[in-house]
Amino acid sequence: MNWTSKIKAFLDDESGAVTVDWVVLTAALIGLALAIMATIGGSAQDVADEIATTMTERGIPEY
Length: 63
Hints:
Number of helices: 2
Distance between the termini: 74 Å
Strand content: under 5%
Structural class: mainly alpha
Shape: rod-shaped
Number of strands: 0
Order of helices and strands: HH
């Protein structure tokens, strides 16, 4: 087997393609999760602050 056929065999090998697909898919899901957290993070904190204020006003103790 000469070096050109070894290079051609290496380029034709697709055994790592599934791994690359999963890495790209996982990275996309992580990016989507971060975008969602950035979008609703401030609003969620505002709601939590309102709940804490209401509980304090009504005399519900914090633990």
